[in-house]
Design brief:
Blueprint (H helix, E strand, L loop, with lengths): L2 E7 L3 E8 L4 E8 L6 H23 L6 E5 L2 E3 L4 E5 L4 E4 L1 H8 L5 E5 H12 L7 E6 L7 E4 L2 E3 L30 H4 L1 H12 L6 H9 L3 H25 L3 E5 L7 H14 L7 E4 L6 H18 L6
Parallel strand pairs: 1-4, 4-8, 9-12, 12-13
Antiparallel strand pairs: 1-2, 2-3, 5-6, 6-7, 9-10, 10-11
Helix pairs in contact: 1-2, 3-9, 5-6, 5-7, 6-7, 7-8
């Protein structure tokens, strides 16, 4: 059966699948990234995992994978297949596409940025399906973004497109590791809300999920923390939609798990801030933590379809 390898490499774990031509998941697997053993061990683990997935396809599906798609964190040069930098995984200028192609006996490999790859999946088969222009914004440890246009995700001239988390929303505010002060992700990421709630309660174990529950219980301290985060997020999103004019705004990541506790005030806050702009539809992401793996499969099928001269998988 014709299939591709889809591999999503995270800071702690890797999710993988063998994906059929219709998007069906023929095999799924997970493995620890093993970053505690150093960057060389991480790379070896990725190559070994890919080789095992290829072998599974030969044994159980009757053929090797037609291509592979791999999503990785950090700075990614998708055009040249280079994982340029990852603070979490410790690599720099890693020619990952070439290494994987060699390990997979010449099979073509597409390398993608994890958030853009997840955005590709949300845009084509998730919450943005059927939308011509969308912005995918996951609210996790940090905040990133993926700009979707016509079924593709824009990487930018240097691979930095969509970095909405580093829009300055509070000039002169909290320092950010990027070197600026007042970046959006220092106020509205799940990590930022967790820290603010821990400070408010004096409980170092308090997190964003607990803050959301306290908001629902009408705790005034939680409401204040939540309102500050929503206000910052709305400021950043309005800047983004002013520049990009997306039809749909897809919010994912840990903070989005609060549901309408987040979405109702966020929609209102964005509506209050816009003047001439058109408010996009604001919806939760649909694919959860499978988005990166599904997007990697789409990247791989795009390679196959390009070779075959057919349209991209939709």
């Amino acid at each position: 059966m014709r299939h591709v390898i889809a591999l999503d490499v995270g800071g702690t774990g890797m999710k993988a699948a063998l994906v059929g031509a219709g998007g069906e998941l023929l095999h799924r697997a997970r493995r620890a990234t093993g970053r505690e053993r150093g960057p060389d061990a991480v790379v070896d683990g990725i190559l070994d995992f890919a080789a095992e997935l290829r072998a599974y396809g030969v044994q159980h599906l009757g053929a090797p994978a037609a291509a592979a798609g791999v999503a990785v964190p950090g700075i990614v040069d998708e055009e040249h297949g280079v994982a340029a930098y990852s603070a979490n995984l410790g690599w720099r200028d890693l020619p990952l596409r070439d290494l994987l192609t060699a390990r997979l006996d010449g099979a073509p490999v597409a390398l993608g940025h994890d958030v853009r790859t997840g955005g590709l999946a949300e845009g084509r088969i998730g919450a943005g399906r059927g939308t011509d222009r969308f912005l995918f914004v996951p609210l996790g440890t940090g905040i990133a973004g993926a700009i979707g246009i016509g079924g593709r995700v824009e990487a930018g001239a240097h691979g930095f497109a969509g970095e909405i988390g580093h829009i300055v929303v509070r000039p002169g505010g909290t320092p950010c590791p990027c070197g600026q002060r007042g970046c959006l992700e220092r106020y509205a990421s799940a990590a930022a809300v967790s820290q603010a709630w821990a400070d408010a309660t004096g409980d170092p174990g308090a997190d964003a999920a607990a803050c959301a529950k306290a908001v629902e219980a009408a705790d005034p301290r939680a409401q204040e923390v939540w309102q500050h985060a929503v206000a910052a997020l709305a400021d950043g999103l309005v800047t983004a939609l002013t520049l990009l004019d997306p039809r749909t705004l897809i919010i994912g990541g840990g903070l989005a798990e609060a549901g309408e506790t987040l979405f109702t005030p966020l929609r209102n806050a964005v509506r209050q801030r816009i003047t001439f702009q058109k408010q996009p539809t604001i919806v939760p992401a649909a694919l959860g933590d499978t988005a990166g793996c599904l997007g990697a499969g789409l990247l791989a099928w795009d390679l196959v379809n390009k070779t075959d001269g057919t349209e991209a998988t939709s």
